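Predict structure. Chain length: 78.
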Amino acid sequence: MKFLLVLTVLLVAFWIWRNNRQSERDDAAPKRKEPARPMPMIACDQCGTHLPENEAVQGNRGRYCCQEHRRQHEAAVR
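Prediction complete.
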């Protein structure tokens, strides 16, 4: 009878220990972030290089990859 009691206590202790380890592993796992949304791309009106829309330089006659291309393109169109 003592053997069954000791065995039961050991099994319960093992079960509790194993469940605690599993929850620690779940907590330690890195949370998956939602992937970043794709950025709209545009072409520079001077050289045709594609770049993200938020990095484009806005000019009077279009969008450009840098201030130098904006200046060159707007000077040539005049």
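Summary: The chain has a mean pLDDT of 87.
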